[in-house]
Amino acid sequence: MIAGIGIDLVEVPRMQKILRRWGDRFTARVYTPEEIAYCRGKALPAIHFAARFAAKEAALKALGLGLGMGLDLREVGVARNNAGLPRLAFTERGLRMLGERAICRTHLSMTHTRELALAMVIMETQT
User: Is the pTM of this model over 0.90?
Assistant: First the structure.
């Protein structure tokens, strides 16, 4: 059964401005080290940072949370499964929140252009 759905859209030029202005200070507060390495390894890092930011926001929305409501952005990450597809990765604290809500499965879809990055998250319970 669907427990929550979240969607978020991020403007890539806005992310580029944030990255230019705040650089490592911003990325260290928002992204996991693995996400930072992945994004910086791309030809246009801002696109990938924007998509991951959208995924984090969409995950919080699916949980019924907003920024500053119990889960930091770094506690929700985007990783890859064995097939190379994106998936959500949570810290121990994030996993506890999922457990408290009986969420047993999460789904993540991301897409982007040079201008926009979008992510959608669906969270499921067993019943």
Answer: yes
- Min mean pLDDT across 6-15, 69-78, 82-91 is at 69-78
Q: In the structure encoding, which two tokens stand for residue 120, read together?
A: 């959608």
Residues contacting residue 32 through CB under 8 Å, at least 6 positions apart = 74, 77, 89
Range of 43's domain? Answer: 2-125
Q: What's the Cα-to-Cα distance from 13 to each of 84, 116, 117, rounded to whole Å?
A: 27, 8, 10
CATH of the domain at 99: 3.90.470.20
* Number of structural domains the chain divides into: 1
In angstroms, rounded to a whole number, what is the distance separating the alpha carbons of residues 126 and 79?
A: 23
Q: What are the b/e assignments for 88-120, b being 16+ CB within 10 Å?
A: bbbeeebeebbeeeebeebebebebeeebbbbb
The yes-or-no verdict on residue 68 having pLDDT over 70 is: no
